[in-house]
Structure formats: C-alpha cells, structure tokens
Recover the amino acids of this structure.
C-alpha cells in the first residue's frame, strides 16, 4: 500500500525529472527551467497526480491529537495547549477571532485540478472522471472544516482570475453550506474508484465522510432555530445508505487490538478507512502530537521529589515536552464489569466490588493525600479494613480494554519503565506542583493512544519517527450509523451499532438499554471513549446540543451544553493505594473556568473579513 508521504516524495521527484527532461542541449537556451509550465503538469495522469497529491495537505485540518479535544474536559492542558484552547472554553472568543474562514487557497487548488484535468487532451476520459471526483472530495473536506466551525462558507467552484469580481458572498446559512459539500461528496462517491491506497480517497472514503458531514448538516438545519429531523429526511436516509455500504461492501473489518491502529503496531489496520501517513525520512517527534504527550522525566527529578521507583534505563528516555493529559472526568467513562453481575458494566466507583471495598466520605489527612492551593476535594474514599481490594484493582481489573490501550495510569509499563503516579510515585502531578519536574502530567494520567512504541533512541525533539493520523475508520462509521438510527428512533439498530465498538474494542458486555434516554447515554459515552483524540468530541457535543432532547440531557435545542461547563477534575491516590481523593481546581491558568454561550454553536466570521467585504455577512447570530 502506498503511504501518503511517499506520494508527496514522488511529487518532488517527478518535478525534478520533468525539469531535467525538458532541458535542451543548447547551453544558450535561457528558459527558466526551475519552473514547469501548466501544459506539462496537465498533459497526462501521472503528472496531474503530482499536483493532486500535494493538495492532500488540507486533510491535516481534520486530523486528531489534542486538536478540538482541548476545548473539552477530555484533557487538561498547560502552556501552548492551554493557551490555544482557553479562549474557547473560558468564553473569551470575540468577533476578531479567526477560526479559518479563509480556505480559498485550498479551494483554488481543487478547482484547478477540476478545470485542468477536464480540459486535458492527454488524460483518458475514465481517468478524468476519477481525478475530478478526487478533487471534489478534497474540496468538500476543506469546506467541511470551515462549515463545522463557522457554519457559512464562501462557495467557489471555478478558477477565479484577476478580471473576476472578488466581492463574493458567503452562503446564507449552514444548511446551504452543507448542501454544496454533500453534493461534492455524492459526486465523489459516484465516480471514485474502489481501490484502496493508504492516504488517498476512494469511493468508501467519500461515503464514510458523508456519514459524518451528514450528521453535522442535520444538526444545523434551520440554524439558529431547532432542526426539524424526521425519519424520512433524505440526508438521514443517505447517511444510513452510505454507512451500510461502507460496512457491507467496503472490505474493512473491526480491529480487535484497538490501540494498535494508532501506533506503529498496526498503522494500516483493516479498520482504517483513511489516514495521513508520514515516515521518518522527513518526520520528527516534534512534528507529531507525541512531542506534547510524553513527559520529560529523569531519575534526578524523581530523587528531588523523593519518589520511586527509579527508572531502569541507562539513558534518559523521556525528554519530550508534555503539555496535556487525560482528565478524571474523561477516564471515568471507561466502564468496569460488575463482579456481582458480569452482564453489566458501570463506572468504576459504581461497581459492587467498589461498594463492598470502599468507605466513602472519610477524612483523609494532607499527610496521606495533600491538596494544592485552591483545590477542593469533591469525593474521597478509603479501603475498608480486611478488604483485599486496592484503588489499583478497583480501577484496573475487568475494565474497558481501551483503558489500557489509551491511558498510562498508575503502575503500568511505558517504554519499558514502570510508571507510578500515586503519591510519592515516579511520575505524579506533584512533581510539577512541587517544582521537581515541569513536563509531567497535571492529572496523574498520560496518553498511550497515539504514542508510537518504537521511537529511538529517546523521546526527544528532532528524533526521526514514522507517524500517522486516523481520519476515519469503520468504528467511526458504525457510531455515525448508531446516531442516525437514534434520530430515526430505531433503538434496536442504534444499540446494535454502538455495541460494535463497545464489544470489539472495549471487550465489554453489550448494552441492553431499551429507552431512548438510556441509549443516548450509552452512545454518547461510547463515542467519547472510542474517538478520543480523533478531533470529534467537541463537534459531537455541539451537534447533540443542536438536536436537544435526549441527546442533550432533556434540554431544548440550542441550549446550554453541560459537558462544556463542567470543571475538570483529577484523582490522587495514596502511596499505599488504600485511599483516593478527587479534586477540582485551577490546575493551570484558568482551567476551572468553563463557560458556554449558545452563540458558540458557531464561531464568528472574523471581523476583518466583514470589514473588507460586507457580502461575507451578516455576522453569525449572537456575535
């Protein structure tokens, strides 16, 4: 299978070949041979593809990592991650904030491909159809990134020239924006080939993305009024049609080893429908999300803190610049199988084994579990005398398999080292609070999902590494289908689809929920856990808030979204792992300030665009 960065390398190599091949033996020829004429680029399919391949860079806008998860309590950030997201979750976005309204250079590249390929005399008609479809797919993806942020786009479907009027208008509504985008995707589904090439679109990639774009389109119908979604909605029916086409005809299969899809173990898993691939030829730790996910940790730091155990490696492995980590809010959604009723899975602190082993509400002294300035304990507990359980066994045994695949928690292996995050462990948040180490977790948790296991010799800026981002996959399509069935009030099919990831990836007993409220709750938890760090949760919360009702805690459409106003919290565990305390606080900056104004269902069109061209207006509601 062809990797994305190899495609890009071929682009530059072919440019060189074309330049050298065009050289005339006449040494006095003075044409500028460092440039290639358009005629050469579009004279055959292979040359045209070199331009097309470099246009795929726009797909990075949909890539994961901290991304939009930083707007939510999925993670707790500091430094650059915090600074990039705080204005959103603190409610400080203003009309001058630019969230990417101008995607016009990307669109121009797509339109050039469509025009020049269509006009080419050297490209076969069948190839023209496929290349144009690919360009339409890319144009749709560029516009989708703008639409889900700002709602309205400046639709351009031709190659503009200096003679054209540039006083263009934006779409009148998000619904109009999505009509254009979905039409491009339908054209792509119709004309793209079925062949699978890693990092390149095919029929099923376009169909998978239709299921995602379509859900967002449904949510923003009639904006800012409530959407009107009924079982016969044509977009809803196409989501189900195309989603089932991907599931039944695409040849993709669910991955049993969940974590392997996101690291070096199985980057080309048969579950992945589209990914962005890079190799160590031109990729370094600091050009991947890993740079800000791994800690900077040494025995010197551990000794200063008085922690243990010391690291065993003769060299310092952890030299990265961690800036975010999972919150306790998030990891509480990794369910645990109940020992008294193994057919059910509940939150770790709601199991029968927890109730039998833990006495809640006991006073825990600061000598056992300290609290930082300004922090408040919201829940605490201690193992009852005589119990054989520990906080570790209660939070780890029989838990959702994605917990171990996604999270580095207390007493787990990480790059060959035993990481302990309890009080006086070797990597708790207290090392940062006490000034012993800076780039360690704020939450006593670290990310494993998305971390390659083979970066050598050290996790350090400049270290070459392969990497890939998963943009869409079969599990995500199944979850999109679950949501579509919920919108149809088809509970049986919705539960079946959400159980696809819950059982295969989580290795949990299937959900047996039967009420619309309970199924929505199970679905929302499942989507959060399965798609964390995949640039999904924030946009899903907005979508569910737009639906209203059971999708958003019984609230009306376009209401507050409780998940976006909840404060993050973290959990400390005593050195003997017999006690815990869950605390809330600032942690860094104003991480505790979480505000949501309903105008934030869409970001504003930045004022500077409206000042230059009033046709881009009017401004989005509330801004």
């Amino acid at each position: 299978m062809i990797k994305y960065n190899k495609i890009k390398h071929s682009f530059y190599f072919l440019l060189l070949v074309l330049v050298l091949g065009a050289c005339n033996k006449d040494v006095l020829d003075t044409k500028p041979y460092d440039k290639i004429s358009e005629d050469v680029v579009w004279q055959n399919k292979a040359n045209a593809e070199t331009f097309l391949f470099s246009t795929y860079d726009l797909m990075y806008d949909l890539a994961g990592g901290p991304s939009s998860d930083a707007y939510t309590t999925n993670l707790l950030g500091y430094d650059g991650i915090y600074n990039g997201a705080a204005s959103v979750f603190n409610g400080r976005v203003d009309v001058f904030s630019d969230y990417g309204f101008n995607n016009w250079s990307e669109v121009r590249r797509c339109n050039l491909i469509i025009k020049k390929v269509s006009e080419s005399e050297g490209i076969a008609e069948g190839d023209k159809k496929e290349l144009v479809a690919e360009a339409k797919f890319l144009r749709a993806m560029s516009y989708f990134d703008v639409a889900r942020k700002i709602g309205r786009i400046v639709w351009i479907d031709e190659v503009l020239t200096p003679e054209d009027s540039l006083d263009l208008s934006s779409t009148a509504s998000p619904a109009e924006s999505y009509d254009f985008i979905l039409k491009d995707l339908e054209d792509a589904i119709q004309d793209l080939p079925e062949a699978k090439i890693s990092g390149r679109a095919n029929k099923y990639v376009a169909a998978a993305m239709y299921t995602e774009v379509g859900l967002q389109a449904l949510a923003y119908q009639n904006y800012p009024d409530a959407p009107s979604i009924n079982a016969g909605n044509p977009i809803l029916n196409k989501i189900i049609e195309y989603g089932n086409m991907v599931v039944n005809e695409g040849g993709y299969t669910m991955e049993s080893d969940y974590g392997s899809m996101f690291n070096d173990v199985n980057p080309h898993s048969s579950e992945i429908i589209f990914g962005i691939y890079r190799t160590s030829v031109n990729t370094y730790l600091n050009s991947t999300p890993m740079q800000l996910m791994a800690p900077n940790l040494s025995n010197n730091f551990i000794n200063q803190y008085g922690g243990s155990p010391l690291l065993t490696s003769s060299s310092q492995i952890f030299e990265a610049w961690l800036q975010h980590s999972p919150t306790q809010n998030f990891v509480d959604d990794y369910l645990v199988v109940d020992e008294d009723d193994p057919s059910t899975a509940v939150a770790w602190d709601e199991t029968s084994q927890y109730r039998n082993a833990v006495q809640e509400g006991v006073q825990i002294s600061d000598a056992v579990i300290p609290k930082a300035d300004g922090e408040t304990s919201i829940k605490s507990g201690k193992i009852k005398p005589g119990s054989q359980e520990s906080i570790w066994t209660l939070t780890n045994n029989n838990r959702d398999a994605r917990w171990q695949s996604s999270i580095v928690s207390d007493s787990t292996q990480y790059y060959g080292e035993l990481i302990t995050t309890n009080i006086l462990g070797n990597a708790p948040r207290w090392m940062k609070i006490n000034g012993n180490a800076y780039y360690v977790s704020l939450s006593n948790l670290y990310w494993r999902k998305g971390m390659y296991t083979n970066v050598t010799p050290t996790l350090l800026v400049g270290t070459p590494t392969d990497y890939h981002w998963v943009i869409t996959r079969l599990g995500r399509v199944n979850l999109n289908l679950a949501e579509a069935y919920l919108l149809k009030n088809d509970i049986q099919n919705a539960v079946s689809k959400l159980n696809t990831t819950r059982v295969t990836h989580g290795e949990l007993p299937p959900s047996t929920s039967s009420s619309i409220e309970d199924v929505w709750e199970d679905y929302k938890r499942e989507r959060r856990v399965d798609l964390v760090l995949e640039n999904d949760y924030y946009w899903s919360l907005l979508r569910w808030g737009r639906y209203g009702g059971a999708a958003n805690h019984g609230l009306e459409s376009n209401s507050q979204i409780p998940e976006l106003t909840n404060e993050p919290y973290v959990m400390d565990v005593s050195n003997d792992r017999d006690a815990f305390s869950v605390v809330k606080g600032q942690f860094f900056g104003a991480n505790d300030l979480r505000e949501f104004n309903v105008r934030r269902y869409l970001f504003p069109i930045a004022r500077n665009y409206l000042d230059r061209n009033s046709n881009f207006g009017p401004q989005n509601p509330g801004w």
In short: The radius of gyration is 26 Å. Residues 22 and 350 are 72 Å apart (CA to CA). Residues 125-150 form the longest helix (26 residues). The chain has a mean pLDDT of 94.
